[in-house]
Amino acid sequence: MAVQVLTVLAYKAGEPVTSSLLAASVNTNPVVIRRLLLVLQTAGFVETRKGASVGSRLRLPPQRIDLAQIYRAVETSEPFKLPQRNPKNPCAVGHCIQAALVQVFAATETALERELAKTSLAHILGLVEKSCGQNRKTPH
Prior knowledge:
Helix content is about 55%, strand content about 5%.
């Protein structure tokens, strides 16, 4: 959802975008978008104004934002989570699996972030424009 919201802001090229328009694009409630915008604002990607120039816009050029940065800003839970319960029976696998998986999961998350870092928001915007045409009207 964060990538889509930021792509809409990039698509609108500096025009302030309301949470209602963003919510329509994502097909969710504007309250959900406003909460997400607060997270994106804290991360330094978005600025939001109230009053005459109501709406949000990107603070950075889309080529300076990559998907790994967005991922780190919005993901609060571990993507690969270990079971919290200890095995009930004295099972060798049950007692050792977590230590084995910790290494695999850490390497997997590192690889995920490395791959996401290769893709900028500008690249996503380019793919969207290529797929949908380059006319800059309402993105939904």
